[in-house]
Amino acid sequence: MPSVKLAVARWGGRVSPLFDTAQQFLLLELRGREIGERRELSVSGVPPFLKAEFLAGMGVQVLICGGISGFFYRQLLALGIQVIPWVAGEVEEVLKAYLHSRLPCKRYAMPGCRTNRRRHRGSCR
Questions:
Q1: What would the pLDDT profile of 85-119 be if each residue is shown by its tens digit?
Q2: Contact, 27 vs 38, CB < 8 A?
Q3: How many angstroms separate the CA atoms of 9 and 66, rounded?
Q4: Interatomic CA distance for residues 53 and 57, integer angstroms
């Protein structure tokens, strides 16, 4: 089974409310539902406009984040990174939901998020 590199923008133990200003990421190597390598990644020394390229250079294939500007969203997509935006909650709970194919989900949607229903069709069980 091929591995997937997942990054979660984080602020403390929670998903960072805004990707654009996030300085810390949890970087995980996944094989199916199993977590391989797990490490903390700081981008505090990376110029903001190069953050997406930095993540792509780290091999990130999927990003889970809170709010995100259109600029960064389009930049990440252009670099081949799948973005799961507008997510809120404790990082470990969100990670568990992702591993069990439960993201996106209303339970982990940012408060006041006005996303379309298709994006939140996933089961929250």
A1: 999 999 999 999 999 988 877 888 887 665 544 44
A2: yes
A3: 8
A4: 6
Q: Which two tokens stand for residue 47?
A: 């110029």
CATH architecture classification, 4-120: 2-Layer Sandwich (3.30)
Closest CA to 51 of 66, 67, 71, 37: 71
Instruction: Record the pTM.
Output: 0.88
DSSP 78-124: HTT-EEE-SB-SBHHHHHHHHHTT--SBGGGBPTT----GGGGBS--
| Distance, CA of 43 to CA of 15 (rounded, Å) | 15
pLDDT digits (tens, 9 = 90+) for 14-36: 999 999 999 999 999 999 888 99
Phi, psi of 29 (to 5 degrees): -105, 120
